[in-house]
Amino acid sequence: MPEQTAGMESRRIAASGDLEVSAYLEIAEAKAGAQPVTGAPSALSRETIVILDFGSQYSLLIARRVRELNVYCELVPFDAPQEQVAALRPRGFIFSGGPASVYEPNAPLAPSYIYEMGLPVLGICYGMQLLAHQLGGRVAPGEKREYGHALLHRGVDSNAILQNLPPTSQVWMSHGDRIEELPPGFRPLAYTDNSPVAIMGNDRGMVGLQFHPEVAHTVYGRELLRNFLYQVCGCTGAWTPSNFIADSLSAIREQVGEGKVICALSGGVDSAVVATLMNQAVGDQLTCIFVNNGLLRREEAERTLDTFHRNLLWNIRYVDASSDFLNNLEGVTDPEEKRKIVGETFIRVFESEARKMGRIDFLAQGTLYPDVIESTTAEHKATAKIKNHHNVGGLPSDMRFTLVEPLRNLFKDEVRQVGHALGLPEEMVWRQPFPGPGLAIRIIGQITRERLETLRAADWVVMDEIKAANYYREVAQVFAVLPGVRSVGVMGDYRTYGEVVAIRAITTDDFMTADWARLPYDLLARISNRIVNEVPGVNRVVYDISSKPPGTVEWE
Ligand code: XMP
């Protein structure tokens, strides 16, 4: 299945680390030929906006913004088949931006069935030019490319899209073309210095924005989107965590029936939310498995289990397989080899546990919406492999599960909101991602029990200080690394020759790109002092100031 595997690899590159257990199981699923479930639970489609993706780098961001306004939306390729779109029963459409020009041969166009549905459409940038082009107006190359900040001035005409918009406001432009002639029935609603028509609209709910309302630089972007959703499309904001939970519980019950479900817990928010939903939906039919791979942080297994037991009282099988993992990793230094071994070992352990349980019909896992989108976006399949976040193991072909993926329509921030609404504790809801191969990819070179202890002790100090300084929620991920370098130091009157510890702290929205966090020097100083004083064998601490790209978040 080469194509399927390529798609799944790219999924992991985008996804945050606490999906790791599911990631291993996706391989199991591919090998075992399990059938993923597709389609949103029907009730969620009550107020759906469909976003046609014309290739903008901001398409997913548009979707997030719409969801933040409590309206459910789905992103589909611009040429999605009519049945797929009609099945979502949309209230309106958004046409994303895109890199093409409408007058180029082969420029992607919106299918005619979209216009025939007679629903409101919001065209953004390329999407606006498409509206003009396809509805009888004229688009031409602008004299000057307009990129970056621009000042938007309202015109004299009124339109629901303009509600609460001040006379002038900052917007973010990124385009080369301009509207030369409006299509029949459209009126100009606002302009900038370079775009005589920066907003256009007609009386049938069709609106074009020459700029990007979804980016933060467009100061009133949220209001414009809200106006489109609520004033133009008539949405009421039904997309809330509690509605999602209610819909999701009935969808799970319907899918699972009397079947038996297995779910792997990683300690991360995604698997915790999945398991909680499953537990509420089908109770005793669910068994959760938590595998200790010996590569966890200090007290992690105990704390995770404790949190689960304290809050959820479910049927959890705890498997301490540390020795299997560490024995298999002995002497291995290659990063990809480490991932592969951890993945394979996980599958073996999981398989053996599952077998002990007898018949299992379903595997519940925490696939998220960006993973789904990425794995269906063709261009990502050609993306070069940076890290093989998947760990190909393979289950025997007689193990077949059907997947239950209750989060496959959610963004990470929505998962956290649902976690909150389900009453999960803060420490679970806000846990930072932690990679499946755990400390194995933070110890450069050979993994020994002694080096694991060194890293655990250093990481403990980092977390302790970060939390004490209230920085845990400020950074997307923070951790210690053992780069495997030794350096000369002096302690008291003695020469030392010890390990170096590197600290990595990043800020990011999506983990695809990241910046190093500007932690206060005093905080870094405290971390450094404590590590050299408290962690035997370490005499130097360095701070990683690389962004991604060119670095990655993890060192391996
Ligand atoms: P990178 O290092 O690729 O990390 O910039 C991006 C995000 O993914 C996590 N990560 C992994 N998660 N298995 C996982 O489950 C892996 O092999 C893996 N490698 C990196 C990383 O912690 C960050 O959140």
What does this structure look like?
The structure is a single chain. By secondary structure, the protein is of the alpha/beta class. It is built from 18 helices and 19 strands. The chain has helices at 2-14, 20-32, 59-68, 82-87, 112-116, 126-134, 221-232, 241-256, 269-282, 300-312, 322-329, 335-356, 369-376, 378-381, 412-421, 426-429, 449-468, 521-534; strands spanning 48-53, 72-77, 90-95, 121-124, 138-154, 168-181, 187-191, 199-201, 206-209, 261-265, 286-292, 316-320, 362-364, 402-404, 477-481, 486-491, 494-507, 515-516, 538-543. Strand 10 (261-265), helix 9 and strand 11 (286-292) form a beta-alpha-beta unit. The relative contact order is 0.12. Residues 1-42, 378-383 and 390-396 have low confidence and may be disordered. It binds xanthosine-5'-monophosphate. Xanthosine-5'-monophosphate (XMP) binds next to helix 2.
Question: SSE layout and pairings?
Answer:
Blueprint: H1 2-14, H2 20-32, E1 48-53, H3 59-68, E2 72-77, H4 82-87, E3 90-95, H5 112-116, E4 121-124, H6 126-134, E5 138-154, E6 168-181, E7 187-191, E8 199-201, E9 206-209, H7 221-232, H8 241-256, E10 261-265, H9 269-282, E11 286-292, H10 300-312, E12 316-320, H11 322-329, H12 335-356, E13 362-364, H13 369-376, H14 378-381, E14 402-404, H15 412-421, H16 426-429, H17 449-468, E15 477-481, E16 486-491, E17 494-507, E18 515-516, H18 521-534, E19 538-543
Parallel strand pairs: 1-2, 1-3, 3-4, 4-9, 10-11, 10-13, 11-12, 13-14, 17-19
Antiparallel strand pairs: 5-6, 5-7, 7-8, 8-9, 15-17, 16-17, 17-18
Helix pairs in contact: 1-2, 1-13, 2-12, 8-9, 8-15, 9-15, 11-12, 17-18
Bound molecules: xanthosine-5'-monophosphate.
